[in-house]
Amino acid sequence: MKQKVLVMDDDPAILEVLEMRLAAMGFDVAATSDPGTALEAVEATRFDLALLDLRMEPMDGMRVMEALHERQPRLPVLIMTAHGTIQTAVEAVRRGAFDYLTKPFVRDELRSKIARTLATRRWARDRERLLTVGQALASSGVMARVLDAVAQATVEATDADRCVVFQLEQGRLVPMASAGSPPPSWEKLAAAATAAMDKGVPITASGPLEGAEGGTIVAAPLVVQRGPAGALVIETAARIEPVEDDLEILALFSSQAAIAIRNTHDLERLKSGAVAALGRMATQVAHEVKNPLAGLRLYVHHLEQRLVKTGDAEARELAGKIASTVDHLASVVAEITAFGRPPELHRDTTALHPLLDECLELARARRPTDGVEIVRAYDPACPAAQLDERELRKAFLNLILNALEALEALEGAGRLTVATAYSPTAGTVTVTIEDTGPGMTEETLARAFDLFFTTKPDGTGLGMSIARSVINLHAGELTVSSRLGYGTRVQARLPLEPAPDPARAPDAQA
């Protein structure tokens, strides 16, 4: 695919010579002496390079260059002049030109400077975008942030209208990150992603975008060890036709996204093994501590009764503090035991909305909610589901308490939203618990599910892990998103019916 070059000069003879020489070099050339025509051309087409004469009327080359950069900021420009001086070169570069050419052109100078300009442009563009993605991959390792960085870098590098990163989850494509303008048709992007995954190589498809214009969709598969795990898809406007460089950069960024997904899968496998071992060890330790704690609590109770008789108020206060500490240790032991021994689910027909109302009331009884606006946004179409009400009560109560504790930092102000959304096609309901509290830092968010990690003075660091284990037992998914200064959103996606057990299938029993 030919690279496009815009040439502007008020000398018709030079314009004709340049057009011929550039066409012979393999470029698609648009030549004009009119500034208005040049600006219209840049608005309609993406150019790879512009050659502008310095001294023209009514607009000189510098002013035309600045107008071009308003429409295409990364367009490299070579200024042409028959009056080349050091001052001219410095001024041209200072105002945004890549370099300048002197007239008449020295043999091979035109070719060499154009080649150097395009090579430097590509190197700088790719280096900048890859540096952004690499920093995200190295600094956090959190897949969502890496995929966001990939999507944004892809849009900037290819001048696409939009980019979407799809990931394959439970047999269906889910958009995990996006950048640019919202797509007019998610279905077309998903179809291109599916085609790229089926073929295992980048694919290009033309299709109508907004209005009657036609654009291009390009998709590259995200390949991990087990095969395609998703696809990176861009959509361009009609005036932008992806070139070979765009396809190469898309393939490069898709590999970065695939690395993020693979690293996340590897980390989850490592964590699951470590968590299982830690859970077994923690359960044994908790069992050894549980009985002595019960005895200690009994001794403190007897001590409190004796101090009531003696009337020693100061000693009674001290005994009360000891009792509170023992109770806290007992609750930690109970949480460790619960985490170390995941329960067997006892599913029954459960109405989620009354369960969430109950959790809200329990949480409000434990935490002050004066000044907190509590919003219930329940989906009336949400049906009853086969769930374990007891285990979900523990999970939702913990998540709501976390939100109320976050709002305490705002001295009781703020808003807590509990919402549900029913998806008939997916057969799932999503429960959202969102607060307008202080939010979390990237480090805290990355460690939200880590065992024993907590930012609370009296926290155990097990609540989020227990909540996720309950949702996982229901074959659901628990996700957390947060922005510092804006609040936190926790979403639990639950299937309405339990997945069939392969071990109990008729074929398995035969």
Q: Secondary-structure blueprint of this entry?
A:
Blueprint: E1 4-8, H1 12-24, E2 28-32, H2 35-44, E3 49-53, H3 61-71, E4 77-81, H4 86-94, E5 99-102, H5 109-139, H6 143-158, E6 162-169, E7 172-180, H7 186-199, E8 203-208, E9 214-224, E10 227-236, H8 244-310, H9 313-340, E11 348-350, H10 352-366, E12 373-377, E13 385-387, H11 389-408, E14 415-423, E15 428-435, H12 442-446, H13 463-473, E16 477-483, E17 487-495, H14 506-509
Parallel strand pairs: 1-2, 1-3, 3-4, 4-5, 12-14
Antiparallel strand pairs: 6-7, 6-10, 8-9, 9-10, 11-13, 14-15, 15-17, 16-17
Helix pairs in contact: 2-3, 5-6, 5-8, 6-8, 8-9, 10-11, 11-13
Characteristics:
five-stranded antiparallel sheet, five-stranded parallel sheet, disordered C terminus, elongated, alpha/beta, 510 residues
How would you describe the overall organization of this protein?
Helix 2 packs parallel to helix 3. Helix content is 50%, strand content 22%. Strands 2-1-3-4-5 form a five-stranded parallel β-sheet, sandwiched between helices. Strands 7-6-10-9-8 form a five-stranded antiparallel β-sheet. It has a five-stranded mixed β-sheet with strand order 12-14-15-17-16. It is an alpha/beta fold and 510 residues long. The radius of gyration is 32 Å and the shape is elongated. Helix 1 (12-24) links the parallel strand 1 (4-8) and strand 2 (28-32). The longest helix has 67 residues, at 244-310. The chain has 14 helices and 17 strands.
Brief synopsis:
Helix content is 50%, strand content 22%. It has 510 residues and is an alpha/beta fold. The radius of gyration is 32 Å and the shape is elongated.
